[in-house]
């Protein structure tokens, strides 16, 4: 990966910011680190957030950057919407016209195409210019909701105003006022797709109490009754994580009082556990397993370098044979570290190989049937024999996705699958590995299977045993359109949402969270001995 530093001066506040942009090969930004100049001590200090009225604009070159204080009740219009504070706006290295916005508060990256009809030479580079006069958009009326008729069929949508005589009783009260809001919230949390739409359209009262953020109990109840993964996202606050249910499009907030997760990064997920890391300064990193549903935690020995990818074996971390493997790539060699449960020190060895083969920032390795599998930056598959310490590389022949921007590895029904995505997701392909012939076979239909992909974890589930129709043959992403999850349908070859009516050939006008992972909920309790590594 590469690192670029940007410097921007804010004339209104007489301060300077520095942005450290970490990029993956052909994948854009992996993360952003912010620094503010301390002029008294003459040093740069790491900051976790920007002022609510400050935005930073980055160009494709390191010398094209500026920070700006947004005037009160005034917005800059960018991409059809007002510029937000506490946000970093930047353009990708490819200069393809897309605009990215990094929300520092919730660690999410949104993408849009503000000048889709503009003719731009291929060699041109965008340059930020702050106008003297800014148009205000704060007083523009905001719609209460935006529902596409295509989402629920061809029927006409009629919004009840609640002012007609038929909707009131003899006391003049609307008939829906007497229904407890707690009951309504519980009902809407159990609805899907079109039923949730009709629920909101019943009357203004029901629409006003509707919220995509509900109590944690509804998501926990759904997780206990169904075997679908849930997306876990952790922002800047170390004691709060959010749980997103991709089937109901419901997000709930989980407060963690008994554990300190500030600064922790989600690295991997499997068997209901998150494998996380915390930087301790210098090259020291603390690794630990964490179950957000039970708040159980298992600490691992310190690791002396920053890791690129990590995974653990098919056994739960509480099992005696659990194995954790991680790696980092250094020029023409790869350092692989591993540790078994019960050990107190990591074992390391070097593999002489082209390190670029191991550098896929959006895919963790997989330990599958005694072998370690990596997805390289060009979507080549690297198979590492853990005992023999040898590595072979397999190419994906005749693929439509010639320029792979993201690649994922996962297990599904005992088979190893790969998901390849082109620029902006305009091409998405799924392959299955024939382990006997050591070749890839493209899959056109997943049938009842569902894939859930993110940088930290890629999981699979089947809908064959569930009573919810229309969920199979889909790839669920860690992306959102408004507050609704985005998925890719192999049947339509497009990106969709269950709720907002999103229907697109790519993932433009969506956002993704950086520090998130899919997890298979587990509510199993463990003894103190089991929680000791």
TrEMBL record:
Cited Pfam families: Beta-prop_KIB1-4
InterPro entries named among the record's database cross-references: KIB1-4_b-propeller
Domain spans labelled KIB1-4 beta-propeller: 253-477
PANTHER family attached to this UniProt entry: F-BOX DOMAIN-CONTAINING PROTEIN (PTHR33127:SF35), TRANSMEMBRANE PROTEIN (PTHR33127)
Record's protein name: KIB1-4 beta-propeller domain-containing protein
Classification of source organism: Eukaryota, Viridiplantae, Streptophyta, Embryophyta, Tracheophyta
């Amino acid at each position: 990966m590469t690192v670029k530093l940007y410097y921007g001066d804010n004339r209104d506040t007489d301060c300077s910011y520095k942005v450290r942009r970490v990029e993956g090969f052909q994948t854009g930004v992996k993360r952003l680190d912010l620094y503010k100049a301390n002029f008294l001590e003459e040093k740069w200090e790491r900051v976790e957030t920007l002022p609510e009225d400050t935005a930073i604009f980055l160009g494709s070159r390191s010398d094209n950057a500026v920070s700006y204080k947004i005037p009160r009740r005034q917005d800059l219009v960018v991409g059809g919407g007002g510029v937000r504070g506490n946000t970093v706006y930047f353009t990708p290295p490819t200069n393809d016209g897309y605009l990215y916005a990094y929300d520092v508060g919730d660690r999410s990256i949104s993408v849009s195409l503000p000048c889709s009809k503009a003719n731009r030479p291929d060699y041109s580079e965008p340059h930020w210019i702050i106008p003297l006069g800014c148009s205000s958009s704060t007083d523009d009326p905001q719609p209460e909701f935006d529902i596409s008729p295509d989402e629920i069929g061809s029927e006409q949508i009629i919004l009840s105003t609640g002012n007609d005589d038929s909707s009131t009783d003899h006391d003049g009260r609307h008939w829906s006022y007497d229904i407890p809001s707690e009951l309504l919230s519980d009902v809407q949390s159990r609805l899907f797709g079109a039923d949730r739409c009709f629920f909101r359209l019943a009357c203004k009262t029901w629409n006003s109490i509707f919220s995509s953020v509900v109590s944690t109990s509804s998501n926990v109840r759904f997780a206990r009754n169904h075997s679908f993964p849930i997306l876990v996202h952790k922002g800047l606050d170390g004691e709060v994580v959010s749980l997103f249910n991709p089937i109901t499009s419901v997000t709930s907030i989980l407060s963690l009082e008994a554990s300190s997760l500030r600064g922790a990064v989600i690295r991997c997920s499997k068997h209901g556990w998150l494998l996380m890391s915390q930087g301790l300064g210098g090259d020291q990193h603390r690794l630990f397993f964490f179950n957000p549903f039970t708040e159980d935690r298992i600490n691992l020995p310190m690791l002396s370098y920053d890791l690129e990818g990590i995974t653990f074996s098919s056994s739960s971390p509480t099992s005696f044979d659990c194995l954790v493997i991680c790696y980092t790539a250094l020029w023409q060699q790869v350092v692989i570290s591993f540790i078994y449960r019960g050990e107190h020190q990591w074992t390391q060895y070097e593999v002489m190989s082209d390190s670029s083969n191991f550098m896929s920032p959006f895919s963790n390795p997989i330990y599958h049937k005694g072998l370690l599998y990596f997805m390289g930056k060009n979507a080549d598959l690297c198979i590492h024999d853990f005992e023999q310490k040898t590595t072979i590389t397999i190419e994906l022949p005749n693929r439509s996705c010639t320029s792979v921007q993201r690649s994922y590895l996962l297990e599904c029904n005992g088979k190893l699958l790969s998901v390849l995505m082109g620029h902006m997701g305009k091409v998405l392909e799924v392959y299955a590995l024939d382990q006997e012939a050591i070749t890839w076979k493209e899959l056109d239909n997943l049938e009842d299977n569902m894939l859930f992909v993110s940088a930290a974890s890629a999981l699979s589930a089947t809908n064959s045993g569930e009573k919810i129709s229309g969920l199979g043959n889909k790839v669920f992403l860690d992306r959102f359109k408004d507050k609704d999850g985005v998925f890719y349908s192999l049947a339509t070859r497009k990106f969709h949402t269950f709720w907002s009516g999103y229907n697109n050939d790519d993932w433009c006008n969506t956002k993704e969270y950086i520090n998130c992972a899919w997890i298979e909920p587990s509510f199993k309790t463990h003894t103190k001995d089991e929680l000791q590594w």
